[in-house]
Design a protein that fits this description.
single chain; 60s Ribosomal Protein L30, Chain: A; Alpha/beta knot; 12 strands; elongated; 256 residues; 21% strand; alpha/beta; 7-stranded parallel sheet
């Protein structure tokens, strides 16, 4: 049966799940839009519950799972990206516990405190995956790893990554137990060039919110670092700053 109406009960549920983090958490699911993103979700072992597919747009192999077919006009209304690719999947959400993560001796992790913008989080996830960062931790988060916009802007790369949510206190305890070198990114006169620091061993680099940076909780908890710049501005967009430091970590590890 082809679904064509926004008033269909299945579509009402889907739109609630697409728009409300609390509804997704309550249902224990996350939503994936796009062919590449759904392929990655499956590749890394996520369990699908059902799919909504527009046959006139979708050009991939139909998944081996429960499928609801929707009209092109309806798909344009429910999808984040309009008519692109024609597939939305609903997957079971599995909780990830930071205590279960066993880091290697050269482990590098990025920690984001109270990040707010899904687009920034998605871009940072993409940089972490590209440059071989071993894990990303969000502390006291104001957005959700499985926000559809995060999945979209990360191009689904988060599905193959070690990602965790924890409090500041839990994260600091984890870093101490596992002997990480902690680097903070406060804007202050005591900050030192990140390129002068040894990032080949266990390293954790912390970033704060887009507007106010790290909270006072992290003051004095690690070495304060900065990215050297020659322009007149004194800061970078959060996702750009994270990308540069992720690359610096990889650059050092590739040095002979």
């Amino acid at each position: 049966m082809l679904i064509e109406s926004l008033q269909n009960e299945k579509i009402k549920r889907l739109t609630r799940l697409l728009s409300k983090n609390q509804d997704r958490r309550k249902a224990g699911v996350f939503i994936v839009e796009g062919q590449q993103e759904n392929e990655r979700a499956l590749h890394f072992g996520n369990q699908p519950e059902e799919y909504y597919i527009c046959e006139s747009i979708f050009n991939g192999k139909l998944p081996d799972s429960k499928i609801h077919f929707v009209s092109e006009k309806l798909y344009e209304k429910i999808a984040y990206r309009g008519t692109t690719e024609g597939i939305i999947g609903i997957y079971k959400l599995e909780q990830r516990n930071l205590d279960e993560f066993k880091p290697k001796q050269d482990s590098a992790i990025i920690i984001l405190e109270s990040v707010e913008k899904p687009g920034n989080l998605g871009a940072i996830l993409r940089s972490c995956e590209a440059f071989g960062i071993n894990a990303l931790i969000m502390t006291d988060p104001r957005t959700d790893f499985y926000n559809p916009n995060v999945i979209r802007s990360s191009v689904g790369c988060l599905f193959g990554m070690n990602i965790f949510q924890a409090s500041n206190e839990e994260t600091l305890e984890f870093l101490k137990i596992n002997d990480y070198n902690i680097f903070t990114t406060f804007m202050s006169d005591d900050a030192r060039n990140i390129q002068e620091k040894n990032l080949k061993t266990k390293s954790a680099i912390l970033f704060g919110t887009e507007h106010s940076g790290l909270s006072d909780f992290w003051k004095g908890k690690g070495e304060n670092v900065l990215i050297p710049m020659s322009g007149t501005i004194d800061s970078l967009n959060l996702s750009n700053a994270a990308a540069i430091i992720c690359y610096e970590i990889l650059r050092q590890k590739l040095e002979k």
